[in-house]
Structures are given as structure tokens and as C-alpha cells.
Design a protein that fits this description.
The structure is a homodimer. By secondary structure, chain A is of the alpha+beta class. Chain A has a domain of 149 residues. Chain A has 18 helices and twelve strands. The longest helix of chain A is centred in the middle third of the chain and has 37 residues. Chain A is globular.
């Protein structure tokens, strides 16, 4: 296993140079931190990554979470990890000071999450879900619920989860059937089943707090009748934790992320005494949950980027150490020539640059989204609305590109190892298995694509899309002021025009009421949108790197760093952007081959 | 697990309608068979697939090949499978009658291999390798070697392998160091190590016969000094099988194909008494091995297509059974509407059509190659040379497209299952793991791409490339005679022009001696070449289906079948061909970003 799993230099480049996180600290919300504090948070996350998370990554895969005699067991390092994260204030890193959090900007939390995900993507789920679940209680729960749960959750004693999916409904929450019957004692009786509940039960915390979607008896049909409940695995009675009739009835045997249990839960089945406490108002559960869902979507995108980062540094180390073959220019000319390192083969260089372009481009887009969230928290009025729209607009893209292309990137890392990549001798086969879930978690690529095209592009009469195109235009205009970047700025300009043409073409179907036709190739639209969004991020990085080269007179590693940024930007523009040509051709094509097609075609 | 893992109707369509295999049987070489015999072979392969191979596919994955106390254990069904294949005459299916084979056309053997690969891709390795190893002895070995080995190998008592890879050399056979020291007793003493030897040791046959590359003491450096040996695990002495100093020192723990052991072997290490018998002449080993390699490459392509086939039918069954969500056209309009089957979502239809297009397009290209091999065997002079060139030309493409796109196809099948695809409850996660090795086996995609562009395109002054372009032109001309196919014929014509332009542009670098530049993006060239080759196969299928619709007046399932062929052809043209636009843009771009780039760029 390579020691390196990410570039700290790149993380600081994005935090400080590209996104100028320090500027956020001028706002009262973040006045308790400064640049040094941000670097210290990064450092303490790296400590936990290096010393606790990364060393057990392989072992957690080999000794997966296990369900026996009614109990779920996970690797004992999980407890150490949760404690260390709690002590460093990193479970509640983005929660407000008021509820016991560290009140850090989301962009800093994102940096921390990237480190943990790259170190050991399975272990981050435990704390990530606790943070998300606690965040819902903090935002929408009563003071009583906050007092009861938040300290223990941010302190790492209690695990949090999100319980959405049910066997019969899958991603279609409209059809969930978990029920909540009111009582006179302030709680509801919960009955139902939930599947795929990550960290839904294990032996490393004393309790598990489920944020649970259910329908109050008599609630309206569909998503408008869904409420949100806190359903603890054990509830407190007279200062004691007692069983709350939440039963683990199965564990999923997964291809990857095997260290994190995914649980099949049943509530109220033992003695009809599962108690849940309503969060906020009845029937508003889905709206609340979407706060967490949107964060979780960015979180899954981040997992994609971080797994791809770990895989890239594995491939890079191997390519720098493994001799094989001769360079093409001398091949066959001297049978006694020694072998060359595989990094000297252009095809290996191409694969490595592809990985680097995906990893650093993806991370940049996710941090951009996090920053929009922070700016929405620190502005008012029109500005605030604009940042919220930008965050909304880009969230499905920042979930999808890093996961879809992350899978390709990890596959390319694996390929650099040849046969070794397929074997347990190297961590690639594990990372390849792990990352595959990310295009499914928290809404599949298909669902994200419907959200992007079917909802975001047209919402508020296209105001969000307009705001996004303006952001990109600003970057293009700035890049044009530097001669060596002009070519790339113009390329991106052409791309944005291409994207707008396609968008208009597709929206035309929506206006004619042809909804299925409008959305039938939403996934390809997402692919096209994602490529130009990452190109935008690369141009942003290119501008900063170019400015640094002009003004900072960097030497040695610093010079290499900035030159590498320019080179990788060029690579992305040369190798990835052209893919939009074929996508646009397809999206503008009049031929309809899926909508309305009979099943008989699939024989 | 779905019962169906392939379309028999499609297999017979390709065998009889598209490739008219029956015509081969007019030649004396195949006069012992006819159309009925071919169908019987398909049926007996299906019997073995249904009753022996497919039922244990999951179990062979859950209980992988194991190495303990110096012995390698595999699933006991392997013995049953090998016996059934031997009894049906299918291990030696393409071997000549003279050596005890069934002397079937390669295209029939391909159909049989497709069935087995789709039924259980791990189990086919055992018989596939025996056939390949025996084929080398049959083609190049002395009568003594043939007499000694072939009957037992084709009879399933003895396993065959190919021993190429060594730890220090990997894919670069130039650097192998296994040595062979001549003795006066007609054998050589073999010393060395070989890695990743599939089926290299196991408990289901009484002996393992290694076809082993080594260098005779004093041989020339590099590939010109490599010889081929038969190195049995146990040799015969006085009618007894005795130990031949071939030791298994390790087994690889693989991500997929876990039922097939991959072995790390040492020869001559126990008592310097490992005996090997030279096959053919000294120093010609690599030339001989390439006969097997080329067949093995097509075989790996076939494995890719067959795994993708199994995954497609799993996804199709699930999509036809799983209700989830509402169709987009009624979404939200009626909260009480029942859920629809996921096959009714356009995005799911798109994913399924993509899989079908990849599976049936890939199989068609591989069968086309097999047919070229058969035609080379049954013609003379210029015709024979032309078929050999066509087979050579297309072999790396028929290895690469079905594996690279097969991986995408299986990933798309998995995606249809949502979270279930990531869990052991469905066979998708296994198929996803299994297929990942196929772009590495028998030469990675990078190596195949160098062979295509660096060798095949220019060989004999472009004669092979010319022959290929003529074949495609013939199909285009025929398609143009049918009005409804004209549009597709013209699209393919444009594609071939695009490919020729790119080819000329790249060959220009070779002519200037810029070898690295010429080949730096060979992998992208392969991708572009593959897409148009599959488009060609789809147009061929489209012509036959169109003719059938015009002349056969098909009804019911037959009508659906032919219409489905036309529809899938259209899908491939609409969704896949446009990808070449971006590839061509990149390949014609002057910017060089890999060749000559310093390592510092990868930070």
C-alpha cells in the first residue's frame, strides 16, 4: 500500500489559493477561525487519516462487518476512529457552536472529508452519517430532542443513520409504507421495514439514532404525507437505555465498503413498542430530509473523488517503481537494453494524467459547491438566493461526475498494475469494488440526471441555470486576460454555447408537454454538463496557477506544482472536452429509440 | 439468478443467417458435418451449460480455489464439467480428426465458447487452456509428443496451461529468464518461475501439462532466443506418473474468476530435475506461442462478450419484474397511481439497449474473425492470404472492444439493480468483478492497441488495412441497395472516411520516424476503430434482418426478433457512433501532452 493517498499541497491550493477560504473568516459566523486554524484542522484530519484510518483500510475489507447471534460486529478500530474524530471536533465540524459543533465552513469540512475518504472510504461512513443525522435534529428538532441527542452524537457515543429506503419502494419514496401512530405520550408508534441502512447497527457505539421517514396514520398519499422521526435503537427510560423494538433482521453482503455494515431493519415487530419522536412538523419530512440528502449527495461525490485519489497515488507509485519493456523509440534496436519504468510509456502517462485530471477536477467542483453553501450562509437577500441556486443547480453534477468518472479513473489506476491490479496483493481491486456503489448511493446517476435536467435547469424560469452560466462566463473573461490561457477560455466558451444549444433543444420538448422525450437522455445531458463544469474548474485552477507562475517566482517543488496544474488543465481540455461533441450530436438527434419502445425489442 | 444467460436465437441467427456457416461444410475439411450437426453441437453445449456449468457459477465464486498443505483445491464440479466437455468432443472441438479432435470450424467452437462463458465464465478456463495447449503440441510438436499428450488432454484426464509471464518481465517476454539446459536424454532441464498460471495446478485432473517458454542456454538475447517446451507437472517413468519438480509456491487471491486458480510456479527448484521437451525448433517458441495467443485473444474477447450477455439477461429479467416509481408522463399527477415496472423508464431502456448492442455486436465481430480463420483454412493462394490478413488485422480489436465495452455493459447491467446490484443477493456484483480481468489477460488494452496501430495497420504496406476497408465497403454497398438502410450505410461510410483520415495522420508520424508520437494515443485509436468495426457488424446484421422481414413474412417471436435487430442497429448508430467525433478530434490534435513529459508533472 502506498503511503500517499492524496496531495496535501493540492488541498491547500484549492482551499487557500483558488477558493480563498480565509475570506469567509471575515464574517461573524466564522470569526472564531483563521487561516492557521484551517490548516490545523487539515493537519489533525491527516493525523487521524495516517494513524488510525488508512492503516486498517485493507483489514476492514478482509474482515467485513458481520451479523451473528443477532449482533452486528465491525472492526474495533471504528471506535478509535469515532473517538478521535469526536475529540478533534470533526463529527460536528459544520454544526453551529450553539449545539456543540465546531461551526466550520463547509469547504473546510469538505477538505477533511476528502482526507478521510482517501485514507479509508469505508470508515468515514460512520461519522459522516452521525453528522448528517445530528444536523437534521439541530436544524429541525425541538430543543428537547437537541438536548437529548446532539451531545452524545457529536461526542461519538451514539451513531446516527438515515432511514429512507424500503423494500417495495426503493428510490421511490412516494411509496414508503412505514407507519407512525400517534400516542398521548408525545411519541409515535413506528412500524415498518428499512433496507440498506449504513451503520444501522454495530458494536462500536452504545446506541444508534435513526432519522426515519414514516407516514402518520391518515396522512396524504405520496411524498406529501411523509414525516421525519427520531427512532433510537435504545430509548432512555429512568436514565437507563432500554430496547426500543428496532431489530436487525439481516446484513447485506456487499461487493465493497465491506467494513461498513448495511442493515435490514424492522421496527415495532417484536412487541409493537417502537417509539419515534416527530422532528419538526408533520408531513414535512421529505423537505427536511432533503437538507441531509443534498449534503449527502455532495458527500458521495466526495467519496468518489477521494477513492480515485487513493487509487491514483497507488498507480503513480507503482508506475515509478515497476520496470517493464522498453520505450517505443528504442524498442527492438538493442536486445540487451535494460527495461524502462512503466511511467515512461506514453499510454501509462496518459492514464495517470486522466486520473489526476478527474481527481483534482472533481474535488475542485465539490469544494466550489461547498463554498456556495458557505456564501449562502454568510450573505443576505439576492446574493444569498443566488448562492443557494448555484448550490442546488450543481449538487447533482458534483455527485455524478466524481462518481461516474471516479469509477473510470480507478479502473484506469487498476489497469496500470496489469495482472497485479486484479489481485489482493495491491489495494486496487478493493478500491475498484468500493467505488462502484457511489453512482447508486443517495440517488442513482439516472435520478441525479432527472434532477439536473427535469428540475434544476428550468427552476425559477431558468434563474439557477442563468446564474451558473454567468459564473462560468466570469471565469472565461478572466482567463482571456492572460494570453497563454486564451485558447482554453475560448474552448470553454464554445462548450458553453454547445451546452446552451442542447439545453434549449431539450427544454423545447418540455414546453410542448413531451416530458418523456424531454428527459429520456437526461443521463447523457448530465455527462455533457459534467464535462464542461469540470473544464470550468480546471480553467479556474489554471488561472491561479498561471498567476502564481507570473508573480511568485516559484522554485523546485512549487514550480513543478504550478506547472503540473497548467499541464493537467491542458490534458483535460485536449482529452476530455472533445467527448461533448458526440454527446451533443446524440442529444440533438431527432431519432427516438427508447420512449414508447415495446418490450419485445429486448429479446 | 436468471435462467437465461444468452439468446440461442441470436446465436443461430449469426451462425446460419449472417455468417452462413453451412457453406463451410462444402469443403472437404468440414464434410463430416452439416447444419444439423452444428445445431446439435450448440444444443449439447447448452445442455452442459444449463446442467453443469451455470448452476455452480455463484458457488465457485463463494468457495474460491484454495491452496493449502501444498495442494490446490477447486470446486468438484470442475471434474464433471471437464468430463462432459471431453465426452461431447468439445475440448478438441477445433483440433483435427487426425489427432483425435472434432475438426469443427472455429466459428462453431466460438458459439460453443460463448455458451460456456455466459453460463460460467470461470469454469471455461479449464477446458479452454487445455484446448490451446494441446493445439500447440498438435501443430508444432513431434509425433512422440502428440502420442504422449493429446489423447489424455482432449480426453479431459490432463489439464493444459500456457506459461509465459515471469515476475520480473510481466508482459515483456523479451526479458524472461527461465532457462533450459540440454541433456543427452532428449529432454531439457528447466529452471525458472512463472506467475499468473491459470489452472496451473488443481485436484480435478491427474496431471497438468505446461506449455512453457524458456531460453536454451546460450540463446540469443530477447524474444529471438525463446523456445517452447512441454513441461508436465508429473512425467511418465516406466508407466508411472512421477513428480517432475514443478512446484506451486503460491496462489493469487483474485477479485473475480475466483473458481479458477492462478498459480505461481517454480520449476527445477526442489532437486534440479524438472524436465521439459522441446516443441518444434529451438528459438521459435514465441512464433509458435503466438498461434495460441491469437486464439486466446479472441477467446478473451469472447469471455468479455459472454459475461456481458449473462449480465444483460439478469438485468432484463429484473427490469421486467421490479416495480418502481411512475412513468415520467404521469409522475405526480395521481398520487395513488401504482408503481410501474422499471423497464418502462426510458433511462432503463437506454441502458438495456446499450447492453444488447454491445453483447450482440461484440459476438458478431468475434464470430466474423473466427470465420476468417475458417476461410483461411479452406482456401488457397491470394484468398487464403487475404483471410489471414483480415484475421490478424481484427484480432486485437475483437479482443479489446468486447472486453472494454463489456466492462461498461456489465456496469450498466449492475446499475439497473440499484443497491441490489452491489450485493451478493444478485449475480451482478460477481459478473462485474469477473469481467474486469479481461482487458488485462493475454495482453492489456494498451498492448493490443500498439499491435493494431503499430503493427497491423502498416503491415505489408497496409495490405491488411486495405483488405479490411474493402470488406466494410462491400457491406456498405449492399446496405445501400435497401432504402431503409441507406442512412446507416452512409453514416458508416463517413465513419470509415474519418478513420482513414486519422490513420493517415498518425502514420505520417511513423514515416517521419516519430514512433512515440505515432503510438502515444494508440488506445484512443483502438477505441475509434472498435466502434466502427462494431457498426459494420451491426449493419451486416441489419441487412440480414431486413431481408428476412422482406422475404420471410415472419410472425410472432420471429417478427419481434428481426425488428429487434433493426432497432438495436439503429440504437448503436445513434448512441455509440457519435463517440468517434471526439476521438478523432483528439487524435488529429497537434498538442502533445504525454510523450516526453517529465515525471514532475505527476505530483
Amino acid at each position: 500500500m502506498a503511503k500517499q493517498y492524496l496531495s496535501v499541497r493540492n488541498l491547500k491550493f484549492l482551499l487557500h489559493e483558488v477558493f480563498k477560504t480565509e475570506e469567509l473568516t471575515k464574517h461573524p459566523r466564522y470569526e472564531h477561525i483563521d487561516k492557521e486554524a484551517i490548516d490545523m484542522i487539515v493537519d489533525s484530519a491527516l493525523q487521524i487519516g495516517d494513524n488510525i484510518a488508512h492503516p486498517v483500510a485493507a483489514e476492514m475489507d478482509r474482515k467485513p462487518a458481520d451479523f451473528r447471534d443477532g449482533k452486528v460486529y465491525v472492526h474495533p478500530q471504528v471506535k478509535k476512529y469515532i473517538s478521535a474524530m469526536a475529540e478533534a471536533g470533526l463529527i460536528g465540524s459544520s454544526a453551529s457552536l450553539e449545539v456543540g459543533g465546531s461551526q466550520l465552513p463547509e469547504i473546510v469540512t469538505t477538505a477533511q472529508g476528502f482526507i478521510m475518504g482517501a485514507a479509508n472510504n469505508g470508515i468515514t461512513t460512520f461519522t459522516g452519517l452521525t453528522a448528517g443525522a445530528a444536523g437534521l435534529i439541530a436544524s429541525f428538532g425541538s430543543q428537547e430532542l437537541r438536548d437529548k441527542y446532539l451531545e452524545k452524537m457529536y461526542g461519538g457515543q451514539w451513531q446516527g443513520t438515515m432511514c429512507l429506503t424500503e423494500p417495495q419502494a426503493g428510490s421511490s419514496l412516494h411509496y414508503i409504507t412505514s407507519s407512525a401512530t400517534p400516542t398521548n405520550e408525545g411519541y409515535y408508534k413506528i412500524r415498518g421495514q428499512k433496507i440498506y441502512i449504513s451503520a444501522g447497527d454495530h458494536d462500536q457505539t452504545e446506541n444508534v439514532i435513526h432519522l426515519y421517514l414514516a407516514k402518520i396514520d391518515g396522512a396524504p398519499a405520496g411524498t406529501r404525507g411523509i414525516s421525519l422521526f427520531v427512532v433510537p435503537q435504545k430509548r432512555e427510560e429512568n436514565g437507563q437505555l432500554v430496547d426500543n423494538d428496532v431489530t436487525t433482521i439481516g446484513i447485506y453482503h456487499k461487493m465493497g465498503q465491506k467494513g461498513t455494515p448495511a442493515i435490514h431493519l424492522q421496527t415495532g415487530a417484536k412487541n409493537d413498542n417502537c417509539r419515534g419522536w416527530l422532528v419538526g412538523e408533520p408531513h414535512k419530512g421529505l423537505t427536511y430530509m432533503f437538507q441531509m440528502m443534498n449534503e449527502a449527495r455532495l458527500g458521495v461525490g466526495l467519496t468518489g473523488a477521494s477513492i480515485a485519489s487513493a487509487a491514483y497515488y497507488e498507480a503513480l507509485e507503482y508506475a515509478n517503481e515497476r520496470p517493464q519493456g522498453q520505450t517505443l523509440s528504442i524498442k527492438g534496436q538493442d536486445p540487451n537494453a535494460p527495461q524502462t519504468l512503466i511511467i515512461n510509456h506514453p499510454d501509462v502517462k496518459r492514464m495517470l494524467l486522466f486520473q489526476k485530471a478527474v481527481v483534482e477536477g472533481s474535488l475542485s467542483l465539490i469544494m466550489q459547491c461547498a463554498l456556495y453553501g458557505d456564501l449562502a450562509h454568510t450573505t443576505e437577500g439576492e446574493d444569498k438566493e443566488r448562492y443557494e441556486l448555484l448550490l442546488d443547480m450543481l449538487t447533482p453534477v458534483a455527485k455524478t461526475y466524481p462518481t461516474e468518472m471516479g469509477i473510470q479513473s480507478v479502473s484506469s489506476s487498476l489497469q496500470c498494475f496489469g495482472g497485479g491490479g486484479f489481485c489482493e496483493d495491491f489495494p486496487l481491486e478493493k478500491l475498484y469494488r468500493d467505488i462502484r456503489i457511489t453512482t447508486i448511493y443517495e440517488g442513482t446517476t439516472g435520478i441525479q440526471s432527472l434532477a439536473l435536467l427535469g428540475r434544476n435547469v428550468t427552476m425559477k424560469n431558468g434563474k439557477a441555470a442563468m446564474a451558473y452560466f454567468q459564473e462560468v462566463s466570469k471565469t472565461i473573461a478572466e482567463a482571456k486576460t492572460y494570453d497563454p490561457l486564451k485558447k482554453y477560455a475560448e474552448t470553454l466558451e464554445t462548450e458553453m454555447q454547445r451546452l446552451q444549444n442542447v439545453t434549449q433543444h431539450l427544454v423545447g420538448f418540455a414546453m410542448k408537454g413531451e416530458v418523456e422525450r424531454f428527459l429520456s437522455d437526461a443521463t447523457l445531458y448530465m455527462e455533457m454538463f459534467g464535462i464542461s463544469a469540470i473544464a470550468w474548474q480546471w480553467l479556474r485552477q489554471g488561472i491561479i496557477a498561471h498567476q502564481a507562475l507570473l508573480t511568485k517566482n516559484p522554485q523546485g517543488d512549487e514550480l513543478s506544482f504550478y506547472e503540473s496544474k497548467i499541464h493537467t488543465m491542458k490534458f483535460f481540455f485536449a482529452y476530455e472536452i472533445p467527448k461533448t461533441q458526440g454527446l451533443a450530436t446524440r442529444l440533438l438527434d431527432a431519432e427516438v429509440l427508447t420512449v414508447g419502445v415495446e418490450k419485445a425489442v429486448f429479446v
